[in-house]
């Protein structure tokens, strides 16, 4: 393209936009054809286009990419119906604090507010699901707005930003900077953009409280991953002899083989859960340090998890989350820096009582985990007439390496992973869409994660677990998986129902709606039709061999496992309502 050569004076706004994105570290975008001018210009700046099938999935791919790469994930879409499909993934990113930038083409400026084809009020539509939404109307302000967009996505509590660009502006000739502006050169596309440590006086007070507590507990959320603070969390756990649990999104923030790590707590502590026997330890905690934790409904078992006398220290970058549901000592700052400062402050205090209490805490955790392993021994090894998810998870856990990435769809899939797979190092990644927990996001999130891992040169394998209900939302992206030649292992739990909906309705109402049942579907056949290796699994004894082969493959593989529709993960809410399989 002659007008896209170097920094020539006849470059277009689209080319300058691609230049600005490249300055912020963007090496790839998730997008279909539009904005065409941008996608035609981008390869000249070394920006690759990863083409999705549907915008909902494209936004989720950008989410998965951002979580693994720690860069702002970029997704593009045209105005109208395509833009509307970005609303759900942006809502997830807003609640889960994932840095995404959506570049959305607008109708031409002369057609604005004239009922142009597919014209919508994008400013109003995106406002509730994004940190920042703006429209560029002037070529000389381009760098100004692009920098604001990346700053919004990557700074403070990360989240989605939306940049709206009229189609005719993109094809205009690039303009010189406004006389009021200066050239911009900084790169702002990584998170966290800024690291700030909490008030030293507050850190000192928190250290004093932790050293003096009789039964302290740390509960780590997804903010630990966002801050890349797993090493600092591990140092605090070891130096101060503190027992540590995580939320579902925080899974992997701590090494679950460490003798002071409980595992995932919250609404997933029913019979068969890793932490059921450890609930008394959580309930008697007199001081809880919350790290990067929203204290949301699921993470606190509907706010019933902690005892009435429990006090809290809350560390988070977002001052509005600190103390939101539990009044707390406030540590407002970056988790990585503040945890390091807190560990240093604790090292200067007398930790003899904490050290003396450690053997008993380790024994209690070991006994709780031993009781759990004994409880699930049968269900994770038996050759049931219909394969059980617990057996699949146990076999997968034995094959996974500490660097591998596991992605779950929403609903039961996230809970099977939380309880039955083991985080074997601080920082291991388990991706779950727990911001608003939309069905169908597992496969596209895994695609984004796989792309990020390959870009970083990682040897991590990527495994995605979906229920058949959720997977039905994203079948089309099997073609994307094949076209991009991504070696993702997709495991579909095919029980013919919407399990969570059916079982929860029965508990709440004593019956279920007709919406929970599906016609039988052969997902392996669908995969083969898309050029993806598809394996149909109907016997428990075939699970190990199928998993080994899939994990060793250098191409995408889908395993469609027929599974017991009565299999339920250990949700506290179900206790006493169903017979247990143990």
UniProtKB/TrEMBL annotation:
Organism annotation: Roseicella frigidaeris
One GO term describing the cellular component: acetolactate synthase complex
One MF term in the entry's GO annotations: magnesium ion binding
Domain of life, source organism: Bacteria
SUPFAM superfamilies linked to this entry: DHS-like NAD/FAD-binding domain, Thiamin diphosphate-binding fold (THDP-binding)
NCBIfam families in the cross-refs: PRK06112.1
Family matches, as Pfam families: TPP_enzyme_C, TPP_enzyme_M, TPP_enzyme_N
Residue ranges of every copy of the Thiamine pyrophosphate enzyme TPP-binding domain listed in the record: 410-561
Gene3D superfamilies linked to this entry: 3.40.50.970, TPP-binding domain (3.40.50.1220)
Name under which the protein is recorded: Acetolactate synthase catalytic subunit
All copies of domain Thiamine pyrophosphate enzyme N-terminal TPP-binding, residue ranges: 12-125
InterPro entries: DHS-like_NAD/FAD-binding_dom (IPR029035), THDP-binding (IPR029061), Thiamin_PyroP_enz_cen_dom (IPR012000), Thiamin_PyroP_enz_TPP-bd_dom (IPR012001), TPP_enz (IPR045229), TPP_enzyme_TPP-bd (IPR011766)
Family listed: Belongs to the TPP enzyme family.
């Amino acid at each position: 393209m002659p007008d896209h050569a170097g920094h020539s004076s006849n470059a277009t706004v689209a080319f300058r936009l691609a230049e600005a994105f490249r300055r912020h570290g963007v090496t790839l975008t998730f997008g279909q054809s539009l904005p065409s001018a941008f996608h035609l210009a981008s390869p000249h700046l070394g920006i690759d286009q990863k083409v999705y099938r549907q915008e909902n999935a494209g936004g989720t791919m950008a989410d998965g990419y951002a979580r693994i790469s720690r860069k702002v994930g970029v997704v593009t879409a045209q105005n109208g119906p395509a833009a509307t499909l970005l609303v759900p993934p942006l809502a997830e990113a807003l609640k889960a604090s994932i840095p995404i930038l959506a570049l959305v083409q607008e109708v031409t400026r002369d057609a604005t507010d004239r009922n142009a084809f597919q014209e919508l009020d994008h400013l109003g539509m995106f406002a509730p699901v994004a940190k920042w939404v703006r429209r560029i109307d002037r070529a000389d302000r381009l760098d100004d707005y692009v920098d604001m967009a990346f700053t919004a996505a990557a700074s403070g509590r990360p989240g989605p930003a939306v940049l709206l660009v009229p189609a005719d502006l993109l094809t205009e000739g690039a303009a010189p900077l406004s006389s009021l502006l200066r050239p911009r050169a900084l790169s702002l596309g990584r998170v966290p953009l800024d690291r700030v440590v909490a008030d030293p006086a507050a850190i000192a007070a928190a250290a004093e409280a932790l050293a003096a507590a009789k039964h302290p507990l740390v509960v780590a959320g997804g903010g630990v991953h966002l801050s890349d603070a797993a090493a600092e969390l591990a140092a605090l756990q070891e130096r101060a002899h503190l027992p540590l649990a995580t939320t579902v999104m925080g899974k992997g923030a701590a090494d679950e083989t460490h003798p002071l790590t409980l595992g995932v707590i919250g609404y997933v502590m029913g019979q068969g859960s890793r932490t059921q026997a450890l609930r008394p330890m959580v309930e008697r905690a007199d001081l809880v340090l919350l790290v990067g934790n929203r204290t949301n409904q699921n993470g606190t078992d509907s706010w019933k998890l902690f005892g009435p006398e429990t006090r809290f220290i809350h560390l988070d970058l977002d001052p509005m989350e600190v103390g939101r549901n539990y009044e707390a000592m406030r540590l407002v700052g970056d988790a990585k820096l503040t945890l390091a400062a807190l560990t240093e402050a604790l090292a200067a205090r007398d930790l003899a009582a904490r050290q003396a209490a450690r053997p008993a805490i380790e024994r209690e955790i070991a006994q709780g985990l031993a009781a759990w392993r004994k409880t699930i021994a049968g269900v994770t090894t038996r050759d049931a007439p219909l394969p059980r998810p617990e057996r699949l998870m146990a076999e997968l856990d034995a094959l996974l390496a500490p660097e591998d990435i596991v992605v779950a769809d929403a609903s039961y899939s996230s809970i099977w992973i939380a309880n039955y797979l083991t985080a074997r190092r601080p920082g291991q990644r388990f991706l779950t869409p727990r911001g608003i927990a939309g069905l169908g996001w597992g496969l596209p999130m895994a695609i984004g994660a796989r792309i990020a891992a390959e870009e970083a040169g990682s040897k991590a394998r990527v495994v995605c677990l979906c229920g058949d209900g959720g997977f039905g939302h994203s079948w089309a992206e099997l073609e994307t998986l094949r076209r991009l030649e991504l070696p993702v292992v997709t495991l579909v739990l095919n029980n013919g129902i919407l399990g969570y909906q059916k079982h929860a309705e029965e508990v709440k109402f004593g019956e279920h709606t007709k919406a929970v049942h599906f016609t039988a579907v052969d997902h392996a056949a669908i995969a083969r039709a898309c050029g993806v290796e598809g394996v149909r699994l109907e016997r428990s004894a075939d699970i190990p061999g199928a998993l080994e082969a899939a994990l060793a493959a250098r191409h995408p593989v889908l395993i469609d496992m027929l599974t017991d529709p009565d299999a339920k993960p250990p949700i506290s809410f179900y206790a006493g309502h169903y017979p247990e399989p143990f």
